[in-house]
Amino acid sequence: MLDVRRLRLLRELSHRGTIAAVAEALTYTPSAVSQQLSALERDAGVPLLERSGRRVRLTAAAETLVGHTEKILEILREADADLASAASTLRGTLRIGVFPTAVPTLLTPAVVRLSSDHPGLRLLVSELDPATVPDALRGDAVDVALVQEYDHVPLAVGPGIEAEPLMEETVHLAALDAGSIADRRDAPWIAGTLGTLCHTLTVRACEAAGYAPGIRHHADDFGAVLALVAAGQGVALVPDLAAGGSPDGVVLTPLAIRRRTSLAYRRGSGTHPEVAAAREALRAAAVSAGLAHTAG
């Protein structure tokens, strides 16, 4: 019988690429991960890893096994959700991952509601860039989190993750005067750190307008971004949630670009009472804010 814990390590290797990354994500040592994967390979009776120096690559048999592992983990989560539903009150730990601009509008009212409705529930909140959410969910670092996509940056959560639409915002061009992205070919740009969705959006939105942006400053906090715009240091793209309270002199021009936020959780865990409570509380907050997603 194949060991589920070892199967999970193989799945993590498939997603993260290196044994060192798996070890760091799951708080193992690299040698422990290697030993467990070697044991899994012996149990399977077929080669699962191809080694080339310090790097490893999954064989075709291993990739097939990863697909089965996703199904196995989903069934186990469904079983756990069914058992948890038999309890009369929620007394577990719920870990929520959010991006900073969602804290005042979505997270705060959601945790207030959760604390009031389920006083025995222990809430743990982590600030996460949406680009890191799928790995955080697969690694059990959080139970439910917010992921994003823009018109120019589609959502890609990968296998094992469920995502349901939550809300939608308009993206604005922040500058010292009104205009369009096409007008800013020669302007300095302010974008997020390389690898973040905000950075990718800036690059792709400008490319859609026919040019590559000249990014002068990198900032992930929208308050800092708007302060730099106000200081005449460049232009930037800013969504609704970050646009409130813009500094004097900053002009926000609505664009045809939308940012959509979804609730994400591990596939099979959506009906778990704790995850279901979080989904309900976050949806209620989005409705109250007037940002709830509507079909079409």
UniProtKB/TrEMBL annotation:
Signal peptide: none
InterPro entries registered for this protein in UniProt: LysR_HTH_N, LysR_subst-bd, WH-like_DNA-bd_sf, WH_DNA-bd_sf
CDD domains the UniProt entry points to: PBP2_LTTR_like_6
SUPFAM superfamilies: Periplasmic binding protein-like II (SSF53850), Winged helix' DNA-binding domain (SSF46785)
A cellular-component GO term for this protein: protein-DNA complex
Domain HTH lysR-type: 2-59
Molecular functions (GO terms): DNA binding; DNA-binding transcription factor activity
Pfam families: HTH_1 (PF00126), LysR_substrate (PF03466)
Keywords of the record: DNA-binding, Transcription, Transcription regulation
Family note: Belongs to the LysR transcriptional regulatory family.
Name this polypeptide is given: HTH lysR-type domain-containing protein
